[in-house]
TrEMBL record:
Pfam families: LpxB. NCBIfam families: lpxB (TIGR00215). Its EC number is 2.4.1.182. It comes from the Bacteria. It catalyses: a lipid X + a UDP-2-N,3-O-bis[(3R)-3-hydroxyacyl]-alpha-D-glucosamine = a lipid A disaccharide + UDP + H(+). PANTHER family: LIPID-A-DISACCHARIDE SYNTHASE, LIPID-A-DISACCHARIDE SYNTHASE, MITOCHONDRIAL-RELATED. Keywords: Glycosyltransferase, Lipid A biosynthesis, Lipid biosynthesis, Lipid metabolism, Transferase. SUPFAM superfamilies: UDP-Glycosyltransferase/glycogen phosphorylase. This is Lipid-A-disaccharide synthase.
Length: 378
């Protein structure tokens, strides 16, 4: 069968690549075409990569508005290529701003559509649920709590675990020991606190200054920020100025694996940190009016994926509009070695791994997709 996959950012490239590998196991004659990145190209054939996510990733309202013409042109280009390929199924991987429009187009043109990794409609933009129900033939979800959310809105989803477990297990054996990590990056012997300040410039501007202030209260630890290559190091250094924070690039899992604890900006990183077994505090700084509006616009009681999936508060969530570090210090001291909350949090992380499901999710999702398509053929 023929599969056309659409992924528009690095995480989608990772999960899309693992899904392609699973589809090849379930359907050895599978043919692919896709928008994605290097990982999908390695899994499904570089000649089948029609557009790299480097050309399609526009984050934030300003970037989107500045590139509206480019986005519209890319949409037309994508639609033409899907139509020319005539796939048995269009598989949309996260990236809802683009992919929800493609779902509508596909429905109007009689192309079967699977959505893999559902848009986070349970947090914001809940109106998208109606579009999912109308335009998506099968929804594949990766968070256990979504199994109860979507049926309430008339959608029966498929859950087979979380592909993050696959990504982490694939990397775990190759991760350096803490001592090796220190040697590679010229760090001293103090215990490490990992800083994950976000993957977007706005997140770093908002959260890294608080993390820098926090680091000064823990001279017995060394704070290491895990940077990402698509953001200029100068931005990190600007907000680390005056602190002793060390910088490493594209070593997120390596930094976490070497850390005693972590301070993490809300997002997928909260779940990755927990699955790696590193106690964490979640910090997210935003403007005061967004904090004030949070109870009215956020559809869920927590922002971290750890708490959402466990259905209770496991990790502290510090959502604030100023640079106060007192509570951040209190929560971090509670989870470093000897801290009062550390052992309970580690036990909660063990439970989380069970709730999320073990490795093999990508293969299980692929098997279900092939089964669904074979039903249609019969």
């Amino acid at each position: 069968m023929k599969y056309y996959l659409l992924a528009g950012e690095p995480s989608g490239d990772l999960h899309g690549a693992n899904l392609i590998k699973g589809l090849l196991k379930a359907d050895p004659e599978a043919e692919f075409r896709f928008w994605g990145g290097d990982l999908m190209a390695a899994a499904g054939g570089r000649d089948n990569l029609r557009k790299h996510y480097r050309e399609t990733s526009f984050f934030g309202i300003v970037q989107v508005l500045k590139n509206l013409g480019t986005i519209r042109r890319q949409m037309r280009e994508c639609q033409a290529d899907v139509a020319e390929f005539a796939p048995d199924v269009l598989i949309l991987v996260d990236y809802p701003g683009f992919n929800m429009k493609m779902a509508r187009w596909a429905k109007e043109h009689g192309i079967r559509t699977f959505y893999y990794i559902a848009p986070k409609v349970w947090a914001w933009r809940e109106w998208r649920v109606k579009a999912i129900r109308r335009y998506v033939d099968r929804l594949f979800i990766i968070f256990p709590f979504e199994r109860t959310y979507f049926p309430k809105h008339g959608i029966e989803p498929v859950f087979e675990g979380n592909p993050l477990a696959d990504a982490i297990e694939a990397r775990r054996a190759s991760l350096p020991t803490p001592d090796e990590f220190r040697r590679r990056n010229g760090l001293d012997e103090r215990p490490i606190i990992a800083l994950l300040a976000g993957s977007r410039r706005g997140e770093i501007r908002a959260n890294l200054p608080l993390m820098a202030l926090l680091s000064k209260r823990f001279p017995e630890h060394q704070f290491v920020v895990a940077g990402v290559a698509w953001i200029d190091r100068a931005l990190y250094e600007q907000h680390m100025a005056g602190s002793d924070i060390r910088y490493v690039c594209d070593q997120t899992y390596e930094t976490l694996a070497a850390a005693e604890a972590a301070v993490v900006t809300s997002g997928t990183a909260t779940l990755e940190t927990a699955l790696l077994g590193i106690p964490e505090a979640v910090v997210y700084r935003t403007v005061w009016w967004q904090v004030w509006l949070r109870p009215y616009v956020l559809k869920v009681p927590w922002v971290s994926l750890v708490n959402l999936n466990l259905g209770r508060e496991c990790v502290a969530e510090l959502i604030q509009s100023d640079l106060s570090v007192e509570r951040a210090e209190q929560e971090l001291r509670a989870i470093v070695a000897g801290g009062s909350k550390r052992e309970k949090m580690l036990a909660d992380f063990d439970e989380l791994r069970t709730v999320i499901g073990g490795p093999g999710a990508s293969d299980r999702f692929a098997e279900r997709m092939v089964e669904e398509l074979k039903k249609e053929i019969r």
